[in-house]
Write a structure and sequence with these properties.
alpha/beta; Rossmann fold; eight-stranded mixed beta sheet; two-stranded parallel ribbon; 14 strands; about 20% strand; globular
């Protein structure tokens, strides 16, 4: 992509922060969407939970990337927190999509976050972007999240959905909690360890977003996961090999359910997701294996 003005919502998050650093390093002008009063021309005010955005600040942007939303794993899923998860994602997406649809000269592309939770638990069955939506809280939220982008799609803005898996990074997400445990020799499988985890290196997550921004012929959903998902047991063993630590401990399923509540279903559930459309588009993973991915996160 030639040097452009790109708006990013969720720029302070794990993925958003890495994307902003990548874009600015290549000379792009990044406009951050913020919830407070803007401090300069590189910030635009918005309130995703209330569904409001200062559309005038998006003028001149060639792309808008929406990665905003409270962390799914940040706390137990009370009814109030589940509503916050939905409101921030769906309300924010709707606000941006409606703002883009109303612009005389809208951005060329709207890249919107989503998640592999769209598919619900898949067990041992491998799924790709051709699979229908699953059932459960996350699946329903992801379906509504993507549907909220409809105004932009109807207005002719190329719209892409990032169905992201478990991002492997030391500085945030689920792996930020796992690394200290494994370093201390306390890592181990969760439950029976047979559930599939569809992971992706943070580097590849950002590279895939950049790839989807650049390709004018790509739209719709893309799974952002490594080519071959692995079971929790296989990932646990790989973590032990890379970190040279034992992986003798295991967390029984009842303990996880007691500690995490409804969210334990996301940890114990199995999602075997493959990035078929991303691979078919010509994207090449820098870190396709779990060993490569973990080593990249530790560097």
């Amino acid at each position: 992509m030639e040097r452009s003005r790109i708006a990013v919502a969720g720029a302070s998050g794990l993925i958003g922060g890495s994307l902003v650093r990548s874009l600015t390093a290549d000379g792009h002008e990044v406009v951050r969407l913020v919830r407070r009063e803007p401090r300069g021309g590189d910030e635009v005010r918005w309130d995703p939970e209330a569904g409001r955005v200062d559309a005038a600040g998006l003028a001149g942007c060639t792309a808008v990337v929406n990665l905003a939303g409270a962390g799914v794993g940040d706390r137990r899923w009370s009814d109030a927190y589940k509503e916050r998860l939905r409101r921030g994602r769906i309300g924010g997406t709707a606000a941006l999509a409606e703002a883009l649809a109303a612009m005389e000269a809208p951005p060329r592309v709207f890249v919107n976050g989503s998640a592999i939770g769209y598919y619900g638990p898949t067990g041992d069955r491998a799924v790709d972007e051709s699979a229908p939506a699953g059932t459960g809280f996350l699946a329903e939220m992801c379906g509504d999240w993507e549907a909220a982008a409809a105004p932009a799609e109807r207005a002719g803005v190329r719209t892409v959905f990032l169905r992201t898996g478990l991002v492997v990074a030391r500085e945030g997400g689920a792996w930020a909690r796992l690394f200290p445990l494994f370093r201390a020799g306390l890592g181990g499988r969760l439950g029976d360890g047979r559930q599939y985890w569809s992971f992706i290196a943070l580097h590849d997550e950002v590279a895939a977003i950049r790839h989807l921004l650049d390709r004018d012929d790509l739209s719709g959903p893309f799974n952002l996961t490594a080519p071959e998902p692995l079971t929790n047991r296989e990932i646990t063993e790989a973590m032990g090999r890379v970190l040279h630590r034992p992986t003798l401990f295991a967390v029984p399923s009842p303990v996880l359910r007691a500690a995490l509540g409804e969210m334990s279903g996301d940890v114990l559930g199995s999602q075997r997701v493959r990035p078929t459309r991303l691979l078919e588009s010509g994207f090449t993973f820098a870190f396709p294996t779990i060993e490569d991915t973990v080593r990249a996160a530790l560097r």
